[in-house]
């Protein structure tokens, strides 16, 4: 009679975990979207999906759980980051809106006292001449004039004669340095107060000033 030996039972072979891989992929996409203000809303959808896939992957027997756990962590982090980015974006937009509204209100108030103000345009350069284009105001009519090959330093001024004629689009000046110059500056002054000043460097440099 042949002797029987006890058979050894082999442990089940671990297989891949598709749920975990899916959770990891969705989690990565969610956390990338979370840091982009416009795409942040996508993270509020993909984050929970990554968490659900990760939980399902963790419950699979004899399957690796590393990708599932990583997917869950990324899903949670994407929701947190998306919430922070969304809140910061909303605060920034509100601050910009308040600033623009404040500037519009300030402009409206100042239009009543603009009559009699003197606007002075100035251009300075280390070169001899410059080409200049600037906005003008005659009564309540706006226009543009040019001074090509103007000797620098150069300046011109005009007065605001009528209340309510104040318009931000009028107060602008653009100047281009001519050959041999290395620097050019423009400046706008209203009643002795500098409201815009810019400097540009380099040959044939262009500089532009406008009121704000």
How would you describe this structure to a colleague?
There is one protein chain. The model is unreliable at 107-113 (pLDDT under 50). This protein has three helices and eight strands. It folds into two domains: 18-109; 114-210, Immunoglobulin-like (Sandwich). The protein has helices at 18-34, 40-59, 66-110; strands at 118-125, 129-138, 141-151, 154-159, 172-177, 183-190, 193-201, 206-210. Helix 1 packs antiparallel against helix 2 (40-59), helix 1 packs parallel to helix 3 (66-110) and helix 2 packs antiparallel against helix 3 (66-110). Strand 2 and strand 3 form a beta hairpin. The protein is an alpha+beta fold. The longest helix is centred in the middle third of the chain and has 45 residues, at 66-110. Helix content is 39%, strand content 30%. The strands form two sheets. It has a four-stranded antiparallel β-sheet, with no helix packed on it. Strands 3-2-5-8 form a four-stranded antiparallel β-sheet, with no helix packed on it.
């Amino acid at each position: 009679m042949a002797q029987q030996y006890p058979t050894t039972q082999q442990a089940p072979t671990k297989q891949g975990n598709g749920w975990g891989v899916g959770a990891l992929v969705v989690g990565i996409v969610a956390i990338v979207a979370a840091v982009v203000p416009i795409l942040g809303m996508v993270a509020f959808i993909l984050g929970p999906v990554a968490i659900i896939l990760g939980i399902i992957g963790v419950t699979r027997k004899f399957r690796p759980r590393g990708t599932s756990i990583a997917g869950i962590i990324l899903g949670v982090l994407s929701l947190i980051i998306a919430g922070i980015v969304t809140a910061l974006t909303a605060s920034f937009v509100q601050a910009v809106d308040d600033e623009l509204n404040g500037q519009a209100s300030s402009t409206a108030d100042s239009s009543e006292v603009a009559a009699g103000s003197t606007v002075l345009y100035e251009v300075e350069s280390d070169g001899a001449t410059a080409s200049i284009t600037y906005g003008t105001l005659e009564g309540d009519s706006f226009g543009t004039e040019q001074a090509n090959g103007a000797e620098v330093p150069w300046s011109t001024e005009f007065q605001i004669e009528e209340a309510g004629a104040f318009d931000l689009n009028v107060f602008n000046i653009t100047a281009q340095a001519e050959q041999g110059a290395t620097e050019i500056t423009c400046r706008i002054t209203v009643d002795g107060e500098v409201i815009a000043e810019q400097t540009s460097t380099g040959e044939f440099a262009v500089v532009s000033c406008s009121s704000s």
